[in-house]
Amino acid sequence: MLLSFFFTLRAAGLKPSLSEFLTLLEALSRHVAIFSLEDFYHLARAALVKDETQFDRFDRAFTAYFKGVETLTGELFGDIPEEWLRKMADRHFSDEEKAKIRALGGLDQLIETLRRRLEEQKGRHQGGSKWIGTGGTSPFGHGGYNPEGIRIGGPGGQRSAVKVWERREYRNLDDSVELGTRNIKLALRRLRRFAREGAPAVLDLDDTIQATARNAGYLDIKMVPERRNAVKVLLFFDVGGSMDPHVRVCEELFSACKTEFKHLEYFYFHNFLYEAVWKDNARRHSEKIPVFDILHKYTPDYKVIFVGDATMSPYEIVHPGGSVEHWNEEPGAVWFKRVLDVFPHLVWLNPEPESHWDYTPSIQLTQELLGKARMFPLTLSGLEQAMRRLAH
Description:
By secondary structure, the protein is α/β, with parallel strands linked by helices. It is 41% helix and 16% strand.
C-alpha cells in the first residue's frame, strides 16, 4: 500500500527520494505513528516533502489516496475486530471516561447498543434522543449533548463524548492565494547567491586546524568574512489608485525583501515609469530621483523587480503627456525600454489575478514591452517562477 502511495506522490510532482521513503518506513517500524491517519499524515509530510511550498500538492495527493479511510459506516464497523476495540478502550480511555461508560451499563452495552442502531437506522436523523444523528441527546452522533456518548462524524456539541470517531478533512493549501511574509521569504531564497564580504569576523575552523598543525601545534586562529547573500536588487513599487487594495501584500513583500537582501534599493512610481521616481510618498513632488541617475549609478548585475497592477489607460504608457499627475516629455514606454537595456535581469510582479490580464489592454501592452514572458502573478507560485527567471 505504501509503495503505491510513494508513486502517487511522485506522479503528483513531489519527487520524494527512495531514501526518504525508507526513512518513513523506519519511522513506522518504530511506531512513530500507529492507528491514526492524522499522525501518519504529519509523519509522511515531514519525511517526504522537501519544501514547505509543496504542502499543497502533498495535501491533494494524500486526500485523494486516503479518501474515506476514516469514515465510520456500518460496513467498516463490522470489519473492526471487537477484541481490538476493547483493547483500545482500555489503553486510551481515562478513568473518568471509563466511569462514564459504566453509567450506560459498561462498554459491552454501549457497543452492542451502537451496533443495533446501526442495523436499525435507515437514514439521516436530526435531533431526538435515540438514533445516530445530530443536534439531539442521543449517546451516538454529533452536535448534541449526552455526557456519556460516542461522537460519530462532525464536530461535538458539548465536548463530552467518550471517544471521538470522525472523518479527518485535510484543508488544501493553495499556492495561488495572497502571500504571507514567511512564504515570501521562502520564495525569495531561490535568488540567493552567497559570498564572503566585509571584515573577517567568523572562525574558519578548517584553516585554523591546518595552520595550527603547520605551526607545530601552537594555536593559529584564522578568521574569514561572514557569508552573506550577495544578490543586489532594485525594487520599484506602484503606489496609489488601483494599487490601494494591494497595499498589504506589497508591505509583506517589501518586509521580506529587506530581510533577505542586504543590497536592496527601493523606489516608488505611480501607474507607470517616467523620468523620475521617489522614496518618500509624502514628498514625492519635491524629492524626486531622476531615472537617469539610477541608470548610471547601479551596475547591470542588479536584479530589478517591478510591482504593480499595470492597469491604466494605454495612453499613459505610449504617449507624451500620458501621465495623470504631470506632463511627461517622453512616453513611459521609452523610459521603461531604457531600464530594460541597462538591467537585463528584470521581472514584473502583478497582484491582479492572472485571469484578468488578457482583458486589460494596458497589461498586454506592458507584457509586450517586457518581452519573453517576464510578468508573473504576485502569488507564491508566481514569485517562485520570477525568482527562477532572475537567477538565470
